[in-house]
Amino acid sequence: MLKSYKSTTLACYAGYITQAAVNNLAPILFIVFQQKYGIGYELISVLIITNFVTQLIVDGLAVKLCRVVSTRLLISAAHFFCAAGLVMMGILPLITDNTFAVLMISVITYAVGGGLIEVLVSPIIEAIPNDSGSAKASAMSLLHSFYCWGQMAVVLISTGYIFFFGDENWYLLPVLWGLLPFINGLIFIKVPISPSLSEEAGMSIRKLLCERGFILILILMLCAGACELTMSQWSSLFAQRGLQVSKQVGDLLGPCCFAVLMGTGRVLNSVFAKKINMYALLCASGLLCLTCYITVALSDNAILSLIFCALCGLSVAVLWPGTFSLAAAGYKKGGTGMFGVMALLGDCGCGFGPFLAGMICDAVTNSGASEATGMKTGFAFSTIFPLLLIGSSLILYFMHKRNRKN
After folding, report:
1. CA-wise closest residue to 260 among 235, 240, 282
2. Domain ranges in the chain?
């Protein structure tokens, strides 16, 4: 049953659902942490940045670990770290008064697993034999769509749980989510894993970093992470505090619709990948993302703001998998190390983008402005990321066009 590469593919899909759980469960509980434990915006920002700083440190270490430790051992251990961190998040606050400290420990634990999953799952899919280049691009986009479906499932299931069982029973939620990575970790022990391109056979990291095109790809990864996570991490709290809607409505119309549209965009890209110019698509996506952030920052209409919070999911759909596909096609000998460096820069964006928005929000609200104004100001400053993405996409496109002529 677990001996075919189809089982490997399904396990990779579940790996990205696990990644969605460790990145998106805590934001659903931010309002609980605020009300029950007095954890404010600044400390919430610290939890967000801790998650992604830990992941990017692991991304960097994984580049070297992959040379000496088997992929199977690393990917299984990654899932067990995620399971442990989620279970700790539910249990530790019940047995100590220092809630923020134990939340930090839990976040660091599952972030170690999340960082390893992010580095390893894409090259595992890329290494599955008998796929053409265009098929691999489609597979990559479809793989990343499962992060979106995972995010949607986290929002729907977690919001439904809190609605029916009350936020006083919130602590069981992360424990239940911890079952998924535990089971998938066991599955990865059994499924076939094709050996990916070794570091010795591929380009060295130093050589990759000397390529101007690859530097632009790293900038795209940074901006992709920031564009995606700033909106998805803050949209639920923004809907509740800034737009004054209920938690259930805020979760469903904010991060849930965001995830649905992001997943839909990735599935569509997997279907039409052969017919689309990825450079043009990245640029168009950046323009739509910029429009979404500007609208959310400036609009006083709650419904319009929620619509563009959700529409931002469509705008960022292809940014991460599209950049991975460009790198895989342009640097065929990049190997696992290339994916590791890209994941590292992506996580820099995932952490820095929401952290910047949160710190700006905190500074503005501390100066006497409303929470709505603070959050809108944070989104306004975040437009720097889609602007950088658009510029980098254009430069990369013209470099590609010039190289084809030569």
Report:
1. 235
2. 5-405
pLDDT at 244 over 50: yes
Comparing CA positions, the residue from 106, 99, 133 lying closest to residue 22 is 106
Helices (H), 38-98: 41-68, 71-95
First vs last Cα of the chain: how many Å apart? 50
The per-residue pLDDT for range 265-283, each reduced to its tens digit, is 988 887 776 677 888 899 9
375 CA to centre of own chain? 21
Sign of CA dihedral 39, 45, 50, 55: positive
pLDDT surpassing 60 at residue 132: no
Question: Which whole number is the average pLDDT over 184-205?
Answer: 74
Closest CA to 269 of 212, 336, 236, 315: 315
Residue 24, pLDDT above cutoff 60 = yes
Whose tokens are 């965001």? That residue is: 258
Q: For the beta carbon of residue 337, count every other beta carbon within 10 angstroms.
A: 23
Instruction: Write down the pLDDT at residue 186.
Output: 95
The class that CATH gives domain 5-405 is mainly alpha
- Name the token pair of 349: 């964006």
| Residue 258 CA, distance from chain mean position | 13
Question: Is the predicted pLDDT of residue 78 greater than 80, yes or no?
Answer: yes
* Residue 312 CA: distances (Å) to CA of 162, 200, 238, 276: 26, 40, 14, 20
CB 395 within 8 A of CB 326: no
